[in-house]
Amino acid sequence: MNIQAIRQDFPILNRQINGKPLIYFDNAATSQKPYSVIDAITNYYQYHNGNIHRAIHTLSSEATELFEKSREKISKFINAKSPNEIIFTRGTTEAINLVAYSLGCDTLGSDDEVLISLMEHHSNIVPWEIIAKCRGFTVKYGHVNKDGTLDYQDFMSKITKKTKICCLSHVSNVTGVINDVKCIAKVAHDNGALMLIDGAQSVPHMKVDVQDLNVDFLAFSGHKMLGPTGVGVLYGKKEALQKMTPFQGGGEMIKDVSFSADHCVVSWNELPWKFEAGTPDIAGVIGLGAAIDYLVALGMDNVFNHEKDLTQYATECLKKCRDITLYGPTDLSQKCGILPFCLRGFSSHETAALFNEYGIALRSGYHCAQPLHQILNLPSSARASFYIYNTKAEIDRFIEIIEELNS
Ligand code: PMP
Fold first, then answer.
1. What distance in Å separates the CA atoms of residue 125 and residue 83, rounded to the nearest whole number?
2. Which of 3, 301, 386, 403 is the most exposed place for a label (fewest CB within 10 A)?
3. Is 201 helix (H, G, I), strand (E, B) or coil?
4. CA–CA separation, 192 vs 113, rounded Å?
């Protein structure tokens, strides 16, 4: 990949922060946006704005075509069997809530179990805990090793005939650990359970093929993969989605609402619209389509290899620095471009504030993954995370600052 050419596509990278060129290392929180995505959104509002699916006038037809084209692009991008398996949501959080509410309220009861790991983002824990309180099922947790990797033996041993769904992040947003979700999905299916993966940190950074992984659900967010905020995706296997009751009711998700005698009879629309109540973020979906075009043109293997190269380089440099502790596995073949660390003498927020003075954007806190921080025995951590436009020169500058602080 020609990184200098890529950087030209991202206007925000020309910004100065505190008088210094911006170095954006907070990509796990959200990515920056190229002109093509910004232009797709502007173009939609300037020339094609109309509500989708509902009218026969030209603007509505154009908007519908652009919207549904994005669904097709996303379907191809993750190798779904059909665009009908792609449901637009507000993001990963809403996608997981959709499954938790639809599946939980419909089919899970007091004899059932949901299995999650302790490395999850809160959005893959809290929805399950909320529904478990209403429906009386049990939420079980698979352990995580001290280096942040999944304890596979423990997780597998907790999958039983009572398990109805296993929920696991594909890549941890704290450590960058890549989980072998294909292998877990096989064990889940052998026991009659479904498999949901949180792809918020995998889909933007690597080739994800839902048919190869054989997962039942995959949730991800547009804003972490060059797209706009407010739009995300739930992929669901047709067979699983067909059995589920809609999470939200309203316009667009019904086939028929009629009154017979004294009661209302409602039938659901076809997939995927059955799960898309109300007017969606049309511009956002079109922007996400442009983001997918950008990533496809780069090639996801190239994206992954570039980030791997940066992670390897940064890890080797940071290991030589005094007063810095790195967390996560030492085997880099198991991880993506996310580096959690602590700087001796500084809290994570102090670390992020200090780097901000130098124009470097880092994340600090517990990154919505408090249980994992408990396991790592950390109140919080600082986090650098890379994407397609980051360079080794930026990492050199980052290391230079750490060395200045150490001296
Ligand atoms: N899961 C993981 C692994 C994440 O990193 C994030 C975002 N930090 C989420 C879920 C939630 O994503 P969103 O806020 O876009 O819904």
1. 28
2. 301
3. coil
4. 12
In which residue ranges of the chain is CATH 3.90.1150.10 found? 3-25+300-406
Low-confidence ranges of the chain (pLDDT < 50): none
**CATH label, 37-296, candidates 3.40.50.300, 3.40.640.10, 2.60.40.1180, 3.40.1670.10:** 3.40.640.10
Q: Give 346: exposed, middle or buried? Use CB within 10 Å, 0-12, 13-18, 19+.
A: middle
The reported pLDDT for the residue numbered 62 is 97
| Residue 190 CA, ligand 1 centroid: distance in Å | 29
pTM: predicted TM-score of the whole model, two decimal places: 0.97
Tokens 């993954």, residue located: 369
Does the beta carbon of 31 sit less than 6 angstroms from any atom of ligand 1? no
User: What is the model's pLDDT at position 405?
Assistant: 81
Phi, psi of 378 (to 5 degrees): -130, 135
Distance CA 129, CA 127 (A): 5
The pLDDT of residue 320: 92
Fold of 3-25+300-406: Aspartate Aminotransferase, domain 1 (3.90.1150)
The amino acid at 24: Y
Tokens of 296: 């496809």
Say what the pLDDT of residue 406 is: 73
Measured distance between the N- and C-terminal CA atoms of the chain, rounded to whole angstroms: 36
Q: How far is CA 268 from CA 55, 160, 231, in A?
A: 20, 33, 23
What is the atom index within ligand 1 of the atom nearest the CA of 368?
A: 8
Q: Give the pLDDT score at 113.
A: 98
Query: 23 CA to middle of ligand 1, Å?
Result: 22
